[in-house]
Amino acid sequence: MKVYIKIYKKKKIPNRLLLLFIILCFSFFLILSFLPKEKPLTREKEPNPQKEVPEAPPPLKESIETIQKGMTLSDILAQHNFSPADILQMREEVKPIYDLAKIKTGQEIRIYSSQDGKISALEYDLDDESYLYIQKKEGIYKAEIKKFPFEIKIRMIWGIIKDNLPSAVTGEGEKELLAYMISEIFAWDIDFYTDLRQGDLFKIIFEKKYLRDEFVGYGNTLAAEFTNQGETFQAFRFIYPDTKEWHYFNFKGDSLRKEFLKSPIKFARITSRFSHSRLHPIRKVFRPHYGVDYAARIGTEVQATADGTVTFTGWNGAAGRMIKIRHKNNYETMYLHLRSYAKGIKKRSKVKGGQVIGYVGSSGESTGPHLDYRIKCGGTYINPLAHRFKPVKPLRSEYLEEFKKEAENYCFLFDAPLSIFSCLYNSI
Fold first, then answer.
1. Which of 47, 314, 346, 365 would be a feasible disulfide site paired with 318, CB 3.0-4.6 Å?
2. 407 is in which domain, residue-wise?
3. Residue 124 maps to which CATH number?
4. Are residue 397 and residue 313 in the same domain, yes or no?
5. Which helix (H) or strand (E) is 84 found in, with range?
6. What is the residue-level pLDDT of the chain in tens, covering all 428 positions?
7. Same domain, residue pair 199 and 213
8. pTM of the predicted model over 0.85
9. Are 265 and 303 in contact (CB under 8 A)?
10. Which residues of 335-362 are buried (b: 16+ CB within 10 A; e: fewer)?
11. Is the CB of residue 428 less than 8 Å from the CB of residue 154?
12. Residue 56: inside a domain, yes or no?
């Protein structure tokens, strides 16, 4: 009897499990019956790419017009089916941004149109950095000034002076303009005609600008080193974070700018020096020559050697066309035998050191084109080549630590082999 009951209990257990399984299945199908039949269909989550992604519009046609001498905006746009009314409307609505009556000869105007000939936009180059963009929206011409999307690459070159700086730079595959950039940085310490010697060394880290993979010009010079007659000069560009002003300093934080530039002409040959007794080439008598003569071609740019105020422009007898500039600390400079004056240079004009003020000529008592450059201090003539001028304000002390960290990085590149530099910067 006990055995029978035991076996009976074993058979009841599977029946209970089966009943439980049946109840669970019934509940599952009951729940499914209440769910909306459309739920499994998720077409919204799987969009048809042909319907939602529009086809790319056909490319715009570009027409480039170069402004010829005497040509006006109307002359150009009339060729592209602009009516006089359209041109007048464009000029008036764009005028708050730029006056289209001031377009310059030699500049480009790019006109973009659709395949059906409808004008979409116009671009006009304002300078090397920016252009004017014009587009008609809702019947109104809207304009804005945009920056060219330059790609900036950082490069470094090393060179040895064999003849002069321009030839050394072009020998390294760069443009002559880069030589002038170097000379401007060190112009306060080095006269790049009289001071250079064979074997002088230079290293420069600089920016090159590219537009559509084509080289279009140089950007900033970041750092430079020049060894002249055994003495090494360094320059590091630093931008003040608060004012955004920038200057060049040596590693100690001293400014490269001095009170006066070494020379009023970037590349010129000295033919006569400061002297208390010199044979005058025309009058044939011995008399003082209180200046330095720089021989240069007619039309060569003459730059002010320091910040100051113009006190005289005009003819001054034997000196010919002359400019006088008054500077701080009781200095005065004079520029003699000029052919002409730079635009805007007149009495009471404010000028900056390095600013072009005139052009080499042979006016007055002169045997050939040259510049006679003179300096007075306290009313007395001084020798421009021998006088020691003071530097301007050094780097602000609160930024000295930050500056030195940047300068150390450049010094590392100056000391490293050129191959290492190439590996570091070719990807920039």
1. 365
2. 149-257+391-428
3. 3.10.450.350
4. no
5. helix 84-94
6. 334 334 334 444 455 555 556 666 655 555 555 444 444 444 444 555 555 555 655 667 778 888 888 888 888 888 887 888 888 888 898 889 988 888 888 888 888 887 666 777 888 888 878 888 988 888 888 889 998 888 999 999 999 999 889 999 999 999 999 998 998 899 888 888 778 899 999 999 999 999 888 898 999 999 999 999 999 999 999 999 999 989 999 999 999 888 888 889 887 778 777 565 554 555 555 557 788 888 889 999 999 999 999 999 999 998 999 999 999 888 999 999 999 999 999 999 999 988 999 999 999 988 889 999 999 988 899 888 877 777 788 999 999 999 999 999 999 888 876 545 445 444 44
7. yes
8. no
9. yes
10. bbbbbebbeebeeebebebbbebbbbbe
11. yes
12. no
Q: How far is CA 328 from CA 377, 392, 393, in A?
A: 10, 12, 14
Closest CA to 137 of 117, 114, 121: 121
Q: Based on the domain organization, do 245 and 340 belong to the same domain?
A: no
Our count of domains for the chain comes to 3
Q: Which of 129, 147, 165 is the last residue of a domain?
A: 147
3-class SS of residue 387: coil
Task: Go through the chain and tell me how many residues it has.
Answer: 428
Q: Are residues 187 and 284 in the same domain?
A: no
18 occurs within a structural domain: no
Indicate if 290 and 363 belong to the same structural domain.
yes
Query: Distance of alpha carbon 31 from its chain centroid, rounded?
Result: 72
CATH code at position 350: 2.70.70.10
DSSP string over 209-269: EEETTEEEEEEEEEEEEEEETTEEEEEEEEE-TTT--EEEE-TTS-BS-BSS-S-SSSS-E
Within a domain: residue 191?
yes
| Domain co-membership, 132 together with 71 | yes
